[in-house]
Design goal:
The chain is of the alpha/beta class. The protein has 10 helices and 5 strands; from the N terminus they run E-H-E-H-E-E-H-H-H-H-E-H-H-H-H. Helix 6 packs parallel to helix 10.
Length: 244
């Protein structure tokens, strides 16, 4: 649709976004956009740690003066207000079942990479208070990204029922479209943004950043662990059901 002046992909961690970012970059280049018009960390020579909340104050100032037509990074709804040429953006995001997103997040960042000193520590081996702290830090992340309260993700504030209400409204009325991890290729074909030919290239999407770690299924976790995870993802579970 010609009334959109920019395409913004709000990449929620562990929701299949790395694969889509590669596709978005490839489609944008093949559709005639120059590298200078595209801002996707890891692409076109840009460093990996260049998502909005990873930029320092000077880098953010410089970033806000550039005129990007295609944006794909870890950021929340509302980032377009910091872009000088983005008055009518087409937003897109990818959603994932909140419990599966959390399991993937924990086993990638904590179990595998050792964040919080938890390398090799399974969820059921955590002390209850440690599990609760982790859940509070990364729970309801999809609501946080979509509610319009957080431009960055890493230090986003806790979501509330009001955040959930805002996220539902924004997803329904402000996003051009959205997809789900388990049917992403079909959902990509529903993107209608003049200048990006997803219809021709969607089936060329390659899997990126796929974890090779085998972690327990949710139903195999201890009941107490399951309940803590569910309790801390109540808002995202409701948002996911709403979107689905």
């Amino acid at each position: 649709m010609s009334d959109f002046d920019s395409f913004i992909f709000t990449h929620i961690p562990k929701c299949g976004g790395s694969s889509f970012r590669q596709l978005l970059n490839d489609v944008a280049l093949k559709s005639g956009y120059s590298k200078s018009e595209i801002y996707i960390p890891t692409m076109n020579g840009r460093k990996a740690r260049r998502n909005y909340d990873q930029l320092n104050s000077i880098q953010r100032y410089v970033w806000s003066k550039r005129r990007y037509a295609i944006l794909g990074m870890h950021c929340g709804y509302g980032i377009h207000r910091l872009m000088p040429n983005s008055r009518s953006p087409y937003y897109f995001t990818i959603l994932r079942h909140p419990v599966q997103r959390f399991l993937s997040h924990y086993y990638h960042f904590m179990f595998r990479q050792g964040n919080r000193g938890l390398m090799g520590v399974h969820l059921d081996d955590l002390r209850e208070d440690d599990l609760i702290k982790i859940c509070k830090k990364v729970s309801n992340l999809q609501t946080r990204v979509l509610c319009g309260e957080n431009i960055g993700i890493a230090n986003s504030k806790q979501a509330t029922r009001q955040s959930l209400s805002a996220a539902k409204n924004i997803l329904a009325n402000e996003y051009g479209s959205y997809g789900f991890v388990d049917r992403l290729e079909a959902d990509i074909l529903q993107i209608h943004f003049t200048g990006l030919d997803f219809q021709q290239y969607a089936h060329h999407m390659e899997a990126k950043n796929i974890s090779t770690i085998e972690y327990p299924a949710f139903h195999d976790l201890a009941q107490a662990t399951q309940q803590i995870i569910l309790d801390h993802h109540e808002l995202d579970l409701e948002l996911y059901d709403f979107a689905r």
